[in-house]
Amino acid sequence: MKERLLALYKLSRIDKELAELDSLKGDIPAMIDDLSKQRSELEDGISGLQAQLDEIVSSEKSVIESNDSLTKKIDKNDNLLRSGAVRSNEEYNALAREIEDAYEKIDSNEKLVDSEYKGKKVELEKKLTDLKTKFEEINVNLNQNESELKDLGKQNEEEENELRVKRNEALKGINAEDLQFYERINSALYGDAVAVVRKGSCLGCYSSIPPQRSIEIRTANRFFNCEACGRILIAEELIKE
Q1: How many domains does the chain have?
Q2: Residue 234 backbone dihedrals phi, psi, to 5 degrees
Q3: Are 37 and 145 found together in one domain?
């Protein structure tokens, strides 16, 4: 059991060094995650607005084409009326009614374009411009943070790689059950899952440990957790031995 406990302690020291290297990155990784999320949301927003704008442009184009067709129809019917080719009052009235209906439809379409499509186009184009401006700002900021993180990674790359190698070696001496126990605690206290007990105190949170429990921890017959912080406890004497 002592060897198992010491193996976890050794692993925790390596993880602590890795955590210290990771801390040099500061809040850059969190900022990158946040900026990436914002960029993705803006991309979705831009895509949605662009789809709405495209739909309006398409509808407007369809209305304009309809007016062009109606105008041609008016010209054709008007030419027929003027040419004298119409032989009956019924035919004349029918052509005149078609011309009148066409003018009404053109007027209705033009009002639709002016009151509906043009206003929405202006509104959507403004929103798109604002979102695209924000997107560019976030993209610049994101690229700067990613570049800074990359530079920091290069500076610590060699040391981090060495620690990764050491960690992989340390894992070979730890069974799956003990590792699972360790990782469950380490996920919350990265690099600080094992705490030394010195003079009846947990050096992880500096809580007092009852004398009888301190004796049991020194015997290391089983794993003990700090009742205050949850860390795996190891007696300082075991490390010195």
Answers
A1: 2
A2: -140, 135
A3: yes
Q: At what angle do helices 118-171 and 2-23 cross, to 10 degrees?
A: 140
Structural domain span for residue 228 = 193-240
- Note whether 112 and 213 are same-domain residues: no
**pLDDT per residue over 21-54, tens digit each?**
887 777 888 889 999 999 999 999 999 999 999 9
* pTM of the predicted structure, to 2 decimals: 0.54
User: Do the beta carbons of residue 198 and residue 236 sit within 8 Å?
Assistant: yes
Last residue of a domain, one of 171, 204, 224: 171
| Residue where a domain terminates, one of 118, 139, 171 | 171
The predicted-structure confidence for 102-150, as pLDDT tens digits, reads as follows 999 999 988 888 888 888 999 999 999 999 999 999 999 999 988 888 8
Strand order in 194-198's β-sheet? Answer: 201-202, 194-198, 232-235
How far CA 62 is from CA of 41, 51, 57, 145, 234, in Å, comes to 32, 16, 9, 46, 79
Buried b (16+ CB within 10 A) or exposed e, 123-137: ebeebbeebeeebee
